[in-house]
Structures are given as structure tokens and as C-alpha cells.
């Protein structure tokens, strides 16, 4: 069963709570500063570093040519962040909606909808109403709560936030099957399909361009709409 546009996931009863204690969580590399949920991306590895640079380029203003993502972030993050904290989900997961549906709207050809791109049945599995003239997938607060429930279950399986993010996109069976002795549960060294293999890179790149817009060609991103509260307080 499909959960997201490009991901294979499973119904609620398929995500098991068994933790894979043998998985190795990545340690932050403070000198590099690139990480997802405080799990570092090993950019010193040539292949990983190259893929990350490509992802950053694809999210730069020269490629995107729009500040839509920054506008969307300014509206959504104040709603999403408190919910993530309430469920114990790292703040970096707030970038998933920007990657999943940042420049898209409506229902995908495969039936996924909303910021978190839930498929109808999986949305129902996590407490959302879909049908009868109501679609909670389009409700920011309700869909974020459902996503948090799902993310917590995935973390219970993988004991790694990076693998949790990858499984959110590709489905937990695919991630479990990709783990072997050689990669030791390190996402960046796994053999995955193209979409899932680039997913965490996209999240970290999105994090970079939203937090440091000028570094990636986004100038005056707040000029066309109201400034965030923290900036207003300075003026």
C-alpha cells in the first residue's frame, strides 16, 4: 500500500515496535555542521559529499527561482513546531512538508494529499477522517499529529531519526531490507531506490536554504510578506 507519492509504506499494524539496537546512529560532526536531527551527514566521504552538494544546488534560488518555500515555512512552522515538540519529534522533521508538497497542491495522481502526503487508508489508520465530504489530510494541525504518531512508531523500529525519515519516504520494509553488515544501518551507505536514497539529502538541503537563505541566493525573502515575529520585535 502506498502512503506517499513516491514511497511504499504500510498500515498501522505493520510497523512493529521492536528496536534494532544494532543500528549505529551517526554522530554530529561539529566542524562540518550538516546534520539531520543531530545525526551528522558524513560529507567527508566523497560520494556523500558530492550528492549533498548536488542537493544543495537543486534547492538554491538559481534552480528554484522562487521564494514560495520560504513563504510556506513562515506560515506553517509556527503550527508544526509545537506539535513536533509535544510528541518528542526533532524539529528538523518540519522540513518534510516542504519536501513532500512544497511546490505542489491538491491530490497527487496516486491519491496522496496534504502537507504530509498521506494516502487515504493510511491517513485513516492514524486517526484522520477521509471521505464523506471531509479530508483531514488537508488540515495542518490534524495531519501533523497523525504524522508524528507514525514517525514515533518508525523511530521505535529503527532507533535512528535519519532512518526514520528514510522509512517515512520509502517504507520500513525497504529500509529494513537495505540494512546489512557492510553499511551497519548507516543511511548514507545504503543501496536504495533513487527517491529514498536522495530523501534525507533533500531534507538537509531544505533546512540549509530555509535557515540561511542568502547563502543560497535567496535575497530579501521576507520583502513580499510579513516578517516573522522575532524580526518584528527587533524593528
Automatic annotation (TrEMBL):
Pfam families: SLT. Residues 90-187 form the Transglycosylase SLT domain. Gene3D superfamilies: 1.10.530.10. InterPro entries: Lysozyme-like_dom_sf (IPR023346), Transglycosylase_SLT_dom_1 (IPR008258). SUPFAM superfamilies: Lysozyme-like. Belongs to the transglycosylase Slt family. This is Transglycosylase SLT domain-containing protein.
Amino acid at each position: 500500500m502506498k502512503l506517499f507519492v513516491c514511497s511504499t509504506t504500510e498500515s498501522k499494524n505493520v510497523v512493529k515496535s521492536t528496536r534494532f539496537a544494532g543500528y549505529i546512529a551517526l554522530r554530529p560532526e561539529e566542524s562540518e555542521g550538516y546534520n539531520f536531527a543531530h545525526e551528522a551527514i558524513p560529507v567527508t566521504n566523497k560520494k556523500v559529499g558530492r550528492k549533498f552538494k548536488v542537493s544543495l544546488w537543486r534547492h538554491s534560488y538559481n534552480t528554484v527561482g522562487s521564494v514560495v518555500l520560504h513563504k510556506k515555512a513562515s506560515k506553517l512552522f509556527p503550527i508544526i513546531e509545537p506539535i513536533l515538540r509535544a510528541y518528542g519529534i526533532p524539529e528538523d522533521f518540519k522540513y518534510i512538508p516542504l519536501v513532500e508538497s512544497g511546490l505542489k497542491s491538491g491530490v497527487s495522481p496516486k491519491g496522496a494529499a496534504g502537507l504530509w502526503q498521506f494516502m487515504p487508508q493510511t491517513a485513516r489508520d492514524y486517526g484522520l477522517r477521509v471521505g464523506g465530504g471531509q479530508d483531514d489530510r488537508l488540515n495542518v494541525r490534524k495531519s501533523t499529529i497523525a504524522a508524528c504518531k507514525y514517525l514515533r512508531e518508525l523511530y521505535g523500529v529503527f532507533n535512528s531519526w535519519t532512518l526514520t525519515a528514510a522509512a517515512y519516504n520509502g517504507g520500513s520494509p525497504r529500509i529494513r531490507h537495505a540494512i546489512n553488515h557492510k553499511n551497519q544501518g548507516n543511511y548514507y551507505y545504503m543501496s536504495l531506490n533513487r527517491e529514498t536514497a536522495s530523501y534525507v539529502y533533500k531534507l538537509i538541503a531544505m533546512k540549509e536554504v530555509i535557515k540561511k537563505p542568502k547563502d543560497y541566493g535567496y535575497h530579501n525573502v521576507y520583502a513580499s510578506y510579513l516578517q516573522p515575529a522575532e524580526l518584528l520585535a527587533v524593528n
